[in-house]
Amino acid sequence: MKNIYVTSPLLAPLDEFIPYLEEIWQNKQLTNGGPFHQQLEATLAEYLGVKHICLFSNGTLALLTALQALRIHGEVITTPYSFVATSHTLLWNGLTPVFADIDPDTCNIDPGKIEQLITPATTAIVPVHCYGIPCDVERIQSIADAWGLKVIYDAAHAFGVKVDNQSILNFGDLSVLSFHATKVFNTFEGGAIICSDLKMKQRIDFLKNFGFLDETTVVAPGINAKMNEVQAAFGLVQLKHIDAGLAKREEIYQRYRKYLDAIDGIESFSVPESVEWNYPYYPISVESNYGLTRDELYEQFKTIDVYARRYFYPLISSFSMYRGFPSADESKLPIANEVAKKILCLPIYPDLTEEDQMKIINFIKENTKVTQATSTLP
């Protein structure tokens, strides 16, 4: 029996990739801003509706560099409900993460909790568009403007997402994308920083290439975070199929909604009508009136070779390097702690067959029936 995972990294057939590899082999430029790198930057900027994009070898290095590019220091308000890279990049930059609780409907940082955490040491806010659902960007920007703070969006899940026909990536001072294999659009590994002015793009490009201005001049203490030509070529191939992939994801999403909404104790997320979404995940909340707990359902799925994911559990604030911060106290993050115990992300990717999806849906339905029937026995 084949294993079914949360996502699949491939949108294009292998034979489309081979000519790109042959060209890389012939021109012998493997990295350092080669032709495919430049082509992917231009193509992505047009597709996403953004002014400037800086490609990176992965999203974590992109976020690390975004903090450097804006010269962030001191304290940074962020969310505990994310992948650990969001906060790890703060520690690597010598910054202090300050965790704000989340909105239970979106799992994004709650703007109403941000202002009370601001101190004289606060310099930035790093929100996450969790599951590609946009943060309340207007309220966050209003707070940032009032207090003179920078805003860097961790937009790892938000490739192609729009609000009122505008790219969500254009909000904040910078937005950071991930092109990891688990993402809607991927380059095996990869990432990018979105910025709105050429001067900032030039600074970021210096920082991702050791700070080199030219062959003999170094203008910044940069690192090596460049996307290579193989990654860029893979991205160009994937991009040709992204719209078809998104349409297939929407079809799978709608099928989940149709059947799961009828199951007691299983709640799906709703996306505002103003949002053009990318269907990156299908998170469900396993409530107390479902027969099993979230963790029990998670383990039961493994018995049929379905590997769902508890995104995001544990909370970042619960890990040893963070739990000592005052803002990490569970009593200050009640919603995030509760949500982290309930969410399970189901498989959703373009080549997930209807047969396999119905296997997942029926398994959820049958497990609650068995449990509910058992619980009524004397």
TrEMBL record:
Entry keyword annotation includes Transferase: yes
Pfam family, one: DegT_DnrJ_EryC1
Residue(s) carrying N6-(pyridoxal phosphate)lysine: 183
Active site: 183 (proton acceptor)
Gene Ontology molecular functions: pyridoxal phosphate binding; transaminase activity
Keywords (A to Z) from UniProt: Aminotransferase, Pyridoxal phosphate, Transferase
KW DNA-binding (keyword) present: no
GO biological process: polysaccharide biosynthetic process
Family as reported in the entry's similarity comment: Belongs to the DegT/DnrJ/EryC1 family.
Protein name according to UniProt: Aminotransferase
